[in-house]
Amino acid sequence: MNNTWSIIPSLKPFLQEAWDKSKFTKPTTIQYETVPKILEGMDLIGESPTGTGKTLAYLLPILQKIDPQKKDAQAIILASSRELVMQILEEIRIWSEGSGIDRISLIGGANVKRQLDKLKKKPQIIVGTPGRIVELIQSKKLKVHEVKTLVFDEGDQLFSSEHIKEVDLIIKSTLKDRQIVVFSATLSKGVESKAYERMNSPEVIRINEDVLRGENLEHAYIVCEERDKISTLKKLMNLENFQGLAFSNNTDQIETFSAKLSYQGKSLAVLHGDTTKQERENAIKGFRQGNYPLLLATDVASRGLDIKGLTHVIQLDVPKDMEQYTHRAGRTGRAGKKGTVISIVTSREASILLKLSKKLNINLQEKNFYKGNLNYTTSK
Questions:
Q1: From residue 168, how far is each of 29, 129, 160, 164, 305 by CA, in Å?
Q2: pLDDT tens for residues 111-122?
Q3: Would you tell me which of 71, 219, 226, 361 could form a disulfide with 122, CB atoms 3.0–4.6 Å apart?
Q4: What topology is assigned to 211-379 in CATH?
Q5: Where are the domains of the chain?
Q6: Cβ neighbours around 354 below 10 Å, total
Q7: Same topology for domains 3-206 and 211-379, yes or no?
C-alpha cells in the first residue's frame, strides 16, 4: 500500500486508486489528525481553515467503513447550503468510483418525487440540507435507524439558532450509539458548546495552519479611483489563464459591474442573495466548467463554494474584518496550487486595507498594470 496514506490501514482498493489519481502526495494536517479517530468511531469536532482538506478528512473514513452490500443509509452528511451539498456529492462520486456505494442529495427546493424515487434504491450515503432531511424523516420516507455516522459540515452554520431545532430532530432520530462528526473553518465558543453537549465526549482538533502566509498565496492591491474599478477588473480578466472569484459586499455594485462588463463583451457569472435557484445553478456550473472566467459574488451567496483551479480572488471593497479576508483568500492557493488575492481599492480604502494586513501579518504588495501585465510598485 502507498505509505503516503498510512493513516488508513488496509485502505480499500477503490480509495487507493482514487488517491493515486488525485496526485496528492500526502494527507493534510487536518486529515492526518482526524481520519484515524473517525475510523475508530470517536465523536469529533474539527476546526481548520478554508482550503485545508476538511471534506476528505471525513469522507475517506466514511467511505472506508461503508458496507456496499448493505442497502440502508449508513451515513448522513449535513450542509447548510445547496451548493455545498452538491460539492460534497461530487467528491463522493470521485472517491467512491468502482465501490458500489450509492449516494443521494436531499435539498430543499428540489423535486421531492424524484428524491423519493432515488431513496427507493436505498443509497448508503445521504447528503442534504437540514430542512429537507427533517421533512422526509417526519413523513417516514427516510429511515435513519441504520445510520452509524452523522457529519455536520460547516458546523458554525448548522449549530446556529437558524438550524438547531432541525439538527436536534435529526440527531434524536438516529441510534444513540451513532457517531457525530462536526467540521468547520471557524467555531465560536457558543457553537462549540452546543455541538459538544450533543456529542459523546468528543475529541476536539484545532489546526491553526497559516494558509494566509503560505508560499502558494500572494497578496496584492491596486489603487485606483472608484470609477476605474470596472476597467481594472477588466484588465485582470485579460490575464493569461485567469479564473477569478470577485467579492463585493454590495449587490448593487455586483449588478452594475456585471452589466457594464457584459456590455463590453466580457463573459461572467453572478451570485448574490437575489439570484434565483436556477440562476445560481447555471452560474456555478458554468464557472466550474470554465465557461466564465469570472464569478462576481457576495460572501453569503458563495459560502462553502469550492472551485478547483481558481487563480485569483479579487476584492472590490475592503473586507469588514480579518475573518472575512481569511474566508475570501482561502478560496485560492489550495491543494498545492498557486493563487493570488488582489484588492482593487481607492486611496482611502488602501490605508484601511494596509492596517488590516498588519493585523493579519501578511505581506501586502502594491501592483499596477504596465503593457497588460501586473507589476510590483512598492512593498508595504
A1: 30, 14, 12, 6, 26
A2: 888 999 999 999
A3: 71
A4: Rossmann fold (3.40.50)
A5: 3-206, 211-379
A6: 15
A7: yes
Alpha-carbon distances of 33 from 28, 60, 216, rounded to whole Å: 9, 13, 22
* Mean pLDDT value across residues 67-73: 93
What's the CATH architecture for 3-206? Answer: 3-Layer(aba) Sandwich (3.40)
Rounded-to-integer distance, Cα 3 and Cα 1, Å: 6
The phi-psi region of residue 335 (left if phi > 0; otherwise alpha if psi is between -120 and 50; otherwise beta) is left
Provide the pLDDT for residue 6: 62
String of DSSP letters for 133-200: HHHHHHTT-S--TT--EEEEETHHHHTSTTTHHHHHHHHHHS-TT-EEEEEES---HHHHHHHHTTSS
Do residues 125 and 77 touch, judged by C-beta distance below 8 A? yes
Q: 151-155, 171-175, 242-246, 299-303: lowest mean pLDDT where?
A: 299-303
Taking each helix axis from N to C end, the angle separating 54-65 and 82-95, rounded to the nearest 10 degrees, works out to 50
pLDDT at 336 > cutoff 70: no
Helices 322-329 and 347-360, packing angle to 10 deg = 90
Ranked by mean pLDDT, the top range of 210-214, 236-240, 341-345 is 341-345
The 10s digit of each residue's pLDDT in 243-257 is 999 999 888 999 999
User: Which strand ranges, in their side-by-side order, compose the sheet holding 364-370?
Assistant: 268-271, 294-297, 244-247, 312-315, 339-345, 217-223, 364-370, 373-379
Kindly state the greatest CA–CA separation across the chain: 65
* Single pTM value for the model: 0.70
